[in-house]
């Protein structure tokens, strides 16, 4: 069963002027940010979990980091982005928010930066960066998540491409989709995690550490 966008939007909470400005900027400049239905679901799950610290892989313009910080008033967030221009834009947006003191933006490749210098553990990790690198991100940062912590992973559906045979995927995206499919199979059989797929937004995977 598919639900209409109009019906889904009745469950979307109002956003402040800064968030609406960021949404317009993302649309006008073709910057991918989390879909509203997905960020609402993610934030509700985070409210239930109540993490005191979150590591985000993939800042973009800082939209999801800000949304998470607004939903969790007692949580600090470290977010990593390798694109310099986006880092600068994210910092400007975040500096105008009421949660700027709880968000730390790190510029660099998430496979290279040493976040352990900032925090040795994170109750939650949110991965929303290069889709073909999800397993490498997971392997690098899952040791920082304690038992009972959660790793959230967005864009698992990849606008329907993950549901196709590789021969039907555009050639330029086949490696990424192959890696994403391999990651999905790998993590669903991982002995240290219980994972569930949530069909919201572009597909949200929730992995609870045993």
UniProtKB/TrEMBL annotation:
Keywords: Magnesium, Metal-binding, Methyltransferase, S-adenosyl-L-methionine, Transferase, tRNA processing. This is tRNA 5-hydroxyuridine methyltransferase. It comes from the Bacteria. Its EC number is 2.1.1.-. It is an enzyme of class 2 (transferase). Catalyzes the methylation of 5-hydroxyuridine (ho5U) to form 5-methoxyuridine (mo5U) at position 34 in tRNAs. GO terms for biological process: tRNA methylation. It catalyses: 5-hydroxyuridine(34) in tRNA + S-adenosyl-L-methionine = 5-methoxyuridine(34) in tRNA + S-adenosyl-L-homocysteine + H(+). Homodimer. It comes from Lysinibacillus composti. S-adenosyl-L-methionine binds at residues 34, 64, 81, 109-110, 128. The keyword Methyltransferase applies. CDD domains: AdoMet_MTases. Mg(2+) binds at residues 128, 154-155. Belongs to the class I-like SAM-binding methyltransferase superfamily. Cation-dependent O-methyltransferase family. GO terms for molecular function: magnesium ion binding; O-methyltransferase activity; S-adenosylmethionine-dependent methyltransferase activity; tRNA (uridine) methyltransferase activity. The gene is trmR.
């Amino acid at each position: 069963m598919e639900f209409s966008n109009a019906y889904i939007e009745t469950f979307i909470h109002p956003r402040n002027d800064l968030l609406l400005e960021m949404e317009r900027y993302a649309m006008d400049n073709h910057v991918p940010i989390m879909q509203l239905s997905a960020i609402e679901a993610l934030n509700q799950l985070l409210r239930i979990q109540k993490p005191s610290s979150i590591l985000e892989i993939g800042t973009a313009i800082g939209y999801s980091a800000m949304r998470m910080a607004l939903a969790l008033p007692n949580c600090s967030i470290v977010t990593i982005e390798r694109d310099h221009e986006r880092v600068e834009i994210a910092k400007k947006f975040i500096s105008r928010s009421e949660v700027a003191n709880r968000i730390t933006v790190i510029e660099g490749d998430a496979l290279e930066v040493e976040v352990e210098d900032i925090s040795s553990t994170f109750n939650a990790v949110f991965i929303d960066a290069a889709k073909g690198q999800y397993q490498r991100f997971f392997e690098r940062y899952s040791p920082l998540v304690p038992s009972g912590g959660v790793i959230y992973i967005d864009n698992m559906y990849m606008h329907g491409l993950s549901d196709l045979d590789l021969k039907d995927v555009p050639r330029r995206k086949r490696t990424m989709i192959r890696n994403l499919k391999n990651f999905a199979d790998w993590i669903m059989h991982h002995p240290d995690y219980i994972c569930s797929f949530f069909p919201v937004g572009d597909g949200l995977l929730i992995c609870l550490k045993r």
